[in-house]
TrEMBL record:
<keyword id="KW-0418">Kinase</keyword>
<feature type="binding site">
    <location>
        <position position="151"/>
    </location>
    <ligand>
        <name>NAD(+)</name>
    </ligand>
</feature>
<keyword id="KW-0547">Nucleotide-binding</keyword>
<comment type="function">
    <text>Involved in the regulation of the intracellular balance of NAD and NADP, and is a key enzyme in the biosynthesis of NADP. Catalyzes specifically the phosphorylation on 2'-hydroxyl of the adenosine moiety of NAD to yield NADP.</text>
</comment>
<feature type="binding site">
    <location>
        <begin position="162"/>
        <end position="167"/>
    </location>
    <ligand>
        <name>NAD(+)</name>
    </ligand>
</feature>
<dbReference type="InterPro" id="IPR016064">
    <property type="entry name" value="NAD/diacylglycerol_kinase_sf"/>
</dbReference>
<keyword id="KW-0521">NADP</keyword>
<dbReference type="InterPro" id="IPR017438">
    <property type="entry name" value="ATP-NAD_kinase_N"/>
</dbReference>
<keyword id="KW-0520">NAD</keyword>
<dbReference type="InterPro" id="IPR017437">
    <property type="entry name" value="ATP-NAD_kinase_PpnK-typ_C"/>
</dbReference>
<feature type="binding site">
    <location>
        <begin position="123"/>
        <end position="124"/>
    </location>
    <ligand>
        <name>NAD(+)</name>
    </ligand>
</feature>
<keyword id="KW-0963">Cytoplasm</keyword>
<keyword id="KW-0067">ATP-binding</keyword>
<dbReference type="InterPro" id="IPR002504">
    <property type="entry name" value="NADK"/>
</dbReference>
<protein>
    <recommendedName>
        <fullName>NAD kinase</fullName>
        <ecNumber>2.7.1.23</ecNumber>
    </recommendedName>
</protein>
<feature type="binding site">
    <location>
        <position position="186"/>
    </location>
    <ligand>
        <name>NAD(+)</name>
    </ligand>
</feature>
<keyword id="KW-0808">Transferase</keyword>
Amino acid sequence: MNTETRCFAVISRGDPISEVKRELAIRTLERAGFVYQAEEPEIILAIGGDGTVLQAFHTYKHRLELSGFIAYNTGHLGFYSDWDDLDALLQAIIEGHLITVSYPLVEVHVHSHEGQTSFLALNDFTIKGVKGSVQINVCLNQHLFESFKGDGLCVSSPSGSTGYNKSLGGAIVHPSLEMIQLSEMASINNRVYRTIGSSLVIPKHHVLKLMPERDSYIYTVDHESYFTDTIQEVRCNVAKEKIQFYRCRTFPFWNRVKEAFISTD
Ligand code: NAP
Ligand code: MN
């Protein structure tokens, strides 16, 4: 991290414990000469759980090159956070003892009769039906790959692979790999309908196109959800942008996975 980095913002989950920690962080950093700057922060501290990291990401996704995120966990899973000692974390920020790691993101373009909307997802994009199963043609690099029929589809980033994607049986992917992963939600497979069944890992520069049959859909980008009955196609690819996290201790991704899903010993 640049030692000149001095402007910061704090996003809290809003519960009493996170709010107390937020006040403490602001007081301590201001006393050390840092400036609270909600508009253009260089350091973004998310206090809460993964949902809070997603909220912080979506608040500041227009500043990804200029800002780094730090996640401090106050309960829940906190897969993104590797800090449980706020004093040590604040000290590391003050002393500039932070290293930067970058994680890939999913770029999503939703085309509907109303026009095109673009999103960046830190975890995932999902699309599901409102009334029941849905039919979606899946194209890879402009070629029809399969016709999916089932509950829906999930496109995750490497760091999002431990979220919804994992519940769908997708692989856990190290965030040094620049890829997106397509996973099925309960595909119907019989004589009439056939999908690959396995999750697909799609590299950078390849384009995944989802063409849903005319119907009503709910689609999600991380924690946000949207209703549409005018969707035409969705394009997903590895984003040019990445998210930067600031870390002060080595906490390898596989240790993070083990602590989150197996045990903390
Ligand atoms: P939520 O319903 O509170 O999240 C569900 C759980 O997923 C929480 O325990 C959350 O951790 C954890 N989580 C979030 N991102 C993760 C990641 N990258 N790796 C491992 N666990 C992760 O909603 P939310 O907190 O706003 O998170 C939205 C995310 O939830 C979506 O992006 C999607 O990945 C996931 N999700 C999962 C399912 C499922 O598994 N069936 C269904 C819907 C959504 P915290 O408790 O620390 O917040
Ligand atoms: Mn949550």
